[in-house]
TrEMBL record:
Gene3D superfamilies: P-loop containing nucleotide triphosphate hydrolases. Residues 90-354, 410-667 form the ABC transporter domain. SUPFAM superfamilies: P-loop containing nucleoside triphosphate hydrolases. The keyword Transport applies. GO terms for cellular component: plasma membrane. It comes from Cyclotella atomus. This is ABC transporter domain-containing protein. Belongs to the ABC transporter superfamily.
Amino acid sequence: MSTMIQRVKIRRLHLKLGGQSRRYNSQNNHTISPLLKFDSAVLRYPQEISRNTSDMELGLEADTITYLQNQDMFLASKGALESSNNEQLQHLQNHWQQSASNHEHQALHVDLHVYPNTECKSAGGGHILLGRNASGKSLTLKTLIHTLHAAEESEQSNPYLHSGSLYIDKQSETKQMNTRYNHFLSHVSFESHSQLLSNPISVHRALIPGGGNRLSPTAQFLIVRLGMFPLLQRTVDTLSTGEIRRVLLVQALVTKPSLLLLDNVMDGLDVLGRQGVQNTLERVLSGFRMDILVQGISAKDTARTQVLLSTLRHEEISDGFDRVTFVGAGRILTEDRGQRSGVDLIHCLYQWSEDESSYNKFTKSLDKADGLNSEPNVINAYSKHDIPSKGDLVSFWESSNKKQHRDILVEACELKVIRDNTILLSGLNWTVQRGERWHLAGTNGAGKSTLGRLLLRMSGNNDISGVNDATIDDGSIIVTQPQTYHHFRRGGVGWVSTELHLHAAQHWKDRTLLEILSIGAGTLFDRDKSNDNDSNADNIKDFIDIDMCLAVLQWLGVLDKTASPSTTDTILSRKFDNLSQGEQKLLLLASAISQRPSLLILDEPCQGLDMWNRARVLGLIAAICEATDTSLIYITHHEEELIDGIDKVLLLEQGRVVQCGARYGGT
């Protein structure tokens, strides 16, 4: 193994030539300039609030402020904001609690070089970006995407680039732009997902860059390879999250980019979908040779694309990636992957983020071993960290509220749901009783997310459907309603999904955490989707108890139990857009759980979470199921996320029920 590592080091020798970082390719006997280079860059989110920020500038409606001012918490928060000076504002992000290690930092210092994919051997040439939630991955990708979308502007205009520079290989960019459809960079990300949904065209048209009616040979091959032919005539807003991810990947690849940026590209994909995407990426790194050429594509269409993959799951790291960058604690580390497996790299990430000296010792021990076969043992211990006791959860769920006695929470009878003449659900007969825990299963496009969204809508707004929303064409459905006690709302449906997350990222950029938690993410989402254009839409009569929200934030590790009131107030004043994707997901989970719902619907709740936070979230869900009579509907394509308490399954296929009843055999 040591001989192989020496060969890798020789082939990957880095040189500094003329002040420019270059990679030396011993096989071709020449140096290669990087496609992009962060040079002594300092990245951070834009300053969020001014010294004299008013209540209305924080995004709170007048009636919301009047109500919240009656709470000591908000008065303290308002006072803290009014007394903040410039120094405090500069350290605003220091107070946001990160994952297990609790590192607190504001800026990310980046020196990162990504080279072209020119060595298309079996080892590939891809580049991996690894880091825990809130480590700086989202910030790095936001900086890169913003720079490329604003190519005509100067680097100083990038709101995330505080100092240093971001260099893009202009020669490569110019060469790519000489052809009509080629791009320097394409990306599959939250940004591209939102952009696709903003213009609900057909899948067929979405896969033709620059307009026209003819699919390119590359697009045709990928459509067959990824099983997308049945989707071509559907509009993109009728697709599931997993189906959209496949559309985005094909859309990105048909532009033959020099650099393909993938941010959690496999989120929402079923098992076959993940296998298809992984195989496609391996062939991208190999230059689209062999199979594509068999289809009659000439050599000029074999794009040598470099892939920068940001991921949180070890199983998504395939053999074609030979460089890895660890991100965390305000710094990064880039090195050759060597012979390390995906599991090995996650172990290395943990060691490096904890202590650099222990990382060096750990990697040396890996050189002498054959790799590791399991995830870090710290996950098992960490999953129990700060999980509330059964007594605490019982007190939390029933505090200051009357016991609800309705036993049937969902009752669907011959339900048929359509959207744009597409049948999404048909002939659904299903009953969910209090205390039942269901796995809502099925392949991409089976109708799972449609059903979860419908349950929220029926609970919150008495079936006030929004523009272009799915509609009930036949049958009926009854869903539990929330109740109000002492001005606080509880019960009903708590809901977290990728759809909610995407909507929040697009429409709630300037909303504060305090606002989202107090009004409720599900309420905000349903109101945004409705036809209610009242400017006073946030003037609601009942709110979520902020004390309950703070407790859940502590359970999820967002708040430290020992945090001072001023620190808590500062965190609650942060804007949604200035959180990492993982932090945003934890906030949405906290909002749903804080309502103490009768029915909790979690649609891929661990998407965007590192394994440490996944373990914490799953541990909390298991504790809630054990201590309360809350019903649970859990939607996932990852069998390892199904906790023991989930003992029933509703399996859908193309909108119809395949299985309904006891879960067995890991189905």
